[in-house]
Amino acid sequence: MQAYEDDIVAWAKEQARLLRSGQFDRLDVAHIAEEIEDVGKSEQRELASRMAVLLAHLLKWKYQSERRGRSWESTIRTQRRAIRLRLERTPSLQAILRDEGWWEETWADAVAAATMETGLDIFPEHCPWLESNILEPDWLPE
């Protein structure tokens, strides 16, 4: 049997083959459970990453109005669309949007990115916008 630690891709193919052939007694149940949990974590990381990019661009939009352009607007629209699709395809992710800790971490990532990209150190410590505004297709902070 292929070891999980040696080659995860080969291990995954073997586990799938064992499942399909009904050889349940040969499955690596502990690692299968771990991988299933990781799928959920990956979806959460993807949502957080996209939200941080969106928030960073909203910060730049608000605090660097003289540099606004199509590129920023395009990134904002792209991230909103990707977030919306992710939430539609994985409705259980809606719960994370009610998690204050998740928002704090995501906001901190957004501020760090905006600070690095702009050189400005003037951004609010906490997100000043409502989730409904952030995800609204046409909303932009003024």
In summary, what is this structure?
Helix content is 65%, strand content 0%. The chain has five helices and no strands. The chain has one domain: Uncharcterised protein PF01724 (Malate Synthase G, Chain: A, Domain 4), CATH 1.20.1220.
Report on this structure.
- The chain is mainly alpha-helical and 142 residues long.
- It has one domain (8-135): Uncharcterised protein PF01724 (Malate Synthase G, Chain: A, Domain 4, Up-down Bundle).
- Helices cover 65% and strands 0% of the residues.
- It has five helices and no strands.
- The chain has helices at residues 8-20, 29-63, 70-89, 100-118, 131-135.
- The model has no long low-confidence stretch (mean pLDDT 95).
List keywords for this structure.
single chain, 142 residues, mainly alpha, Malate Synthase G, Chain: A, Domain 4, 0% strand
The chain-level mean pLDDT equals: 95
Order of helices and strands: HHHHH
Find the CATH superfamily: Uncharcterised protein PF01724
CATH topology category name? Malate Synthase G, Chain: A, Domain 4
Label the overall shape. elongated
User: Per DSSP, what share of the residues sits in E-state strands of 2 or more residues?
Assistant: under 5%
CATH class: Mainly Alpha
| N/C terminus separation | 60 Å
Helix content: 55-70%
Write down the domain tally: 1
Number of strands: 0
The helix/strand class is mainly alpha
Layout of secondary structure:
Blueprint: H1 8-20, H2 29-63, H3 70-89, H4 100-118, H5 131-135
